[in-house]
């Protein structure tokens, strides 16, 4: 059994493709390469990354695409020699019609300042449990808090919070959370700023938004019984710039067309 199956020694990126155009493709590629260097995986170059997507993803239609780097080999493998393998999974994208989300406060407190949580790896058992327990309780996702009471993220999304003064903030990477591609774009656009948030501060915020590479920004209507202003969240989302999209040819050439959005 290879290390990717036994220990989750893998990395993945989940992308949206619409009629051959990909949202935030460069950000996904850069994040994958940065993470691969930290976990002894060999990242693809631009040509190999684009080629793998071309071969797996239909040129027409809307698709959810998962590009994965897998660690083959290890002491339980038939061939113990280490080798990085890539694989692409594709499924149709049906969209997300939910107008808002409800979050379940996870009882499991994550360790503080864990840098491994900044990697989108296959070793995500804690996140899987948080998400499943939230669904079992009738919620859309779970809210994750660390052992010192700082809010980190949701099980499948980063979080943005609206202060009373009208500014938006998001928990800092230093707390140990995923550097999401939508989150990074919003930081680059100065739409949010990083700030630590304690769980007891939650009632002070007017609105909350989740950000996810597949579903995009979504208003949060409640965390447990705490309600939030979904109209304020929706208005903020509506005012955000449309994300740029890129064809594989543009990506491979290192160019893009900023006038074209999906």
From TrEMBL:
Family: Belongs to the class-IV pyridoxal-phosphate-dependent aminotransferase family.
Top-level class of the enzyme under EC nomenclature: transferase
Organism encoding this protein: Acanthopleuribacter pedis
GO molecular function: branched-chain-amino-acid transaminase activity
Pfam families assigned to the protein according to its UniProt record, in alphabetical order: Aminotran_4 (PF01063)
GO terms of biological process kind: carboxylic acid biosynthetic process
Cited PANTHER family: AMINO-ACID AMINOTRANSFERASE (PTHR42743), AMINODEOXYCHORISMATE LYASE (PTHR42743:SF11)
InterPro entries: Aminotrans_IV (IPR001544), Aminotransferase-like (IPR036038), BCAT-like_C (IPR043132), BCAT-like_N (IPR043131), Class-IV_PLP-Dep_Aminotrnsfr (IPR050571)
Chemical reaction(s) catalysed: L-valine + 2-oxoglutarate = 3-methyl-2-oxobutanoate + L-glutamate; L-isoleucine + 2-oxoglutarate = (S)-3-methyl-2-oxopentanoate + L-glutamate; L-leucine + 2-oxoglutarate = 4-methyl-2-oxopentanoate + L-glutamate
Gene3D superfamilies in alphabetical order: 3.30.470.10, D-amino Acid Aminotransferase, subunit A, domain 2
EC number: 2.6.1.42
Pathway: Amino-acid biosynthesis; L-valine biosynthesis; L-valine from pyruvate: step 4/4; Amino-acid biosynthesis; L-isoleucine biosynthesis; L-isoleucine from 2-oxobutanoate: step 4/4; Amino-acid biosynthesis; L-leucine biosynthesis; L-leucine from 3-methyl-2-oxobutanoate: step 4/4
Protein name as catalogued: branched-chain-amino-acid transaminase
Keywords: Aminotransferase, Transferase
């Amino acid at each position: 059994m290879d290390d990717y199956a036994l220990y989750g020694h893998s990395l993945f990126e989940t992308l949206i493709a619409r009629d051959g155009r990909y949202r935030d493709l460069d950000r996904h590629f850069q994040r994958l390469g940065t993470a691969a260097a930290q976990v002894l995986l060999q990242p693809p170059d631009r040509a190999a990354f684009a080629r793998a997507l071309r071969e797996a993803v239909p040129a027409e239609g809307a698709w959810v695409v998962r590009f994965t780097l897998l660690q083959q080999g290890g002491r339980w493998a038939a061939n113990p020699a280490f080798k990085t393998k890539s694989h692409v999974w594709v499924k149709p994208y049906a969209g997300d019609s939910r107008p808002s989300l409800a979050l379940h406060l996870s009882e499991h407190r994550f360790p503080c300042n864990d840098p491994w949580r900044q990697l989108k790896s296959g070793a995500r058992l804690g996140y899987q449990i948080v998400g499943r327990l939230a669904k079992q309780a009738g919620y859309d996702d779970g809210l994750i808090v660390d052992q010192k009471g700082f809010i980190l993220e949701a099980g499948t999304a980063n979080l943005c919070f609206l202060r009373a003064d009208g500014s938006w903030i998001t928990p800092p990477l230093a707390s140990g959370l995923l550097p999401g591609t939508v989150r990074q774009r919003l930081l680059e656009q100065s739409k949010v700023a990083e700030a630590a948030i304690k769980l007891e501060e939650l009632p002070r915020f007017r609105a909350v938004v989740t950000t996810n590479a597949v579903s995009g920004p979504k208003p949060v209507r409640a965390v447990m019984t705490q309600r939030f202003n979904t109209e304020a969240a929706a208005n903020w989302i509506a005012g955000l710039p449309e994300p740029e999209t890129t064809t594989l040819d543009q990506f491979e050439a290192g160019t893009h067309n900023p006038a074209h959005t999906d």
